[in-house]
Amino acid sequence: MKNKFIYPIFVTGLLFFTASCNEEYLQTEPTEFITQEQLADASANNPDLLKGTVSGIYSLMFQTETGGTTNHNDFGQKGYDIFSDMLSGDMALSSNTYNWYRNLADYQVTIDYTRNENYQVWRYYYRIIRSTNIVVQALGGNDAIPVNQENQYLMGQAKALRAYAYFYLTQFEVNGYDLSQPILPIYTDPAQQAQPKSSASDVYGLIVDDLTDAITLLDGFNRLTKTEINKYVAEGLLAYVYAAMGNNGDAKTLTNDIIASGGFPLTTTAELTGGFNNVNTPSWMWGVDLTPNQGLDLVSWWGQMDIFTYSYAFAGDRKVIDLNLYNSIPANDARKSQFSASSQLPINKFYDPNRIQGGQRVITTDYIYMRVDEIYLLNAETAAKSGDEVTARTSLKALLVNRIPDNSYVDGLSGQALLDEIYLQTRIELWGEGKSYLAMKRNQATINRGANHLFQAGVAVPYNDERLTFEIPQAEIQNNPFLNDQN
């Protein structure tokens, strides 16, 4: 049964308050709704007040126009999953009618800071940050440990969400990993004015601290819905952060714990072609249960990707698996059948269960943010990179059991050949789920686009090319005097 979320009136105030990332740091408190101080006082003894606020932050992840535009590619995290998959080269725009992704696929967006997509990315993630800062301050501030157990869980979720937003900004806005490089402004208090860029060391330090705190604060938290972040999701996020930093030993430890203690089974063979449309799938660690109440339709991930939804994919804007990647999948691999052999459309991976072309109008198929299969792959990758090839082969083989008839070839892999195979399996397994871009950066890979890309077909682009990262948007530079000479 679908869950229904009802948000208190002050959540509307929170969302109103976070409406502009370019102006929000000039305003210290909303005047139309409950104040920061009132929220802190009220929530000290009544966690339900802040529960609604945190639920409102989760809703930003799937609401439309949270990137500050009316564009039909502006619909929260899954919108940026498409952005990243296209930049990675693993998702090809094979036909184009409506132009929502034309300039991104053609590398025009990422070299022109006036393009709206740059604004969307910046504004969305800083809006999440702004909202989490309100919660953290209401619970006593960055160094506080709330006395109330429920408030501890809320603090853990808020810190994890803040870290999630900063981490994605480090990936989208920066094309390398230099700890001394100024990369992003840091905001940890809703009353802060405009800030200059902080060093990568400070930004990653905040992310690690937030997620470390979140894991501790969320210990024992039994969430009501997979929309909420629990301890294991926070561990998964921190593992991704450590892997991006090259701290592979700690990433391996965290992923080991999720595999051993999280209770999430691997996606089954049947589920691989089951539509990826139900948050109750046991392997899903984090996602959102979409219902008609959320009001999503054409402007959504499904409205861009699924031919069995009334969608741009159905009407002519086709997002398909890169032909080179498709050809690398063996014929006897269960994941080969996720895609059309003639068009490379993901017709058997992502779909509305009714399977009527153009059929689903109101979106009730769910969104996936994280599943345990990616944790096995990240465990294999970080184990191999930290010198533990036995664990790496074990985790990779565990994933492949339900994908291919014989996984024994993995036993003969070592060194770079093992790393290359893990990276390939990551790209195949997680196609369309927004993880290829992160893997490309971690593995310092070069994109080799296949022949089915409408734009830039055949081009080779290295992971640190300027064309693969977004620019600080024009509006932010104009409104933050510290960024005028830092972009």
TrEMBL record:
Task: Write down the SUPFAM superfamilies for this protein, in alphabetical order.
Answer: TPR-like
Matching PROSITE patterns: PROKAR_LIPOPROTEIN
Q: What domain of life does the native source organism fall in?
A: Bacteria
Key word Isomerase present in the record?
Answer: no
Is the keyword Secreted in the record?
no
The RagB/SusD domain is annotated at 325-486
Which InterPro entries does the record cross-reference, listed alphabetically?
SusD-like_N, SusD_RagB_dom, TPR-like_helical_dom_sf
Record-linked Gene3D superfamilies? 1.25.40.390
> Which locations, inside or outside the cell, does it occupy?
Cell outer membrane
The record places domain SusD-like N-terminal at 94-242
Q: Which UniProt keywords apply?
A: Cell outer membrane, Membrane, Signal
The family annotation for this protein states:
Belongs to the SusD family.
Name of the protein this chain belongs to: RagB/SusD family nutrient uptake outer membrane protein
Instruction: Give the organism's phylogenetic lineage.
Output: Bacteria, Pseudomonadati, Bacteroidota, Flavobacteriia, Flavobacteriales
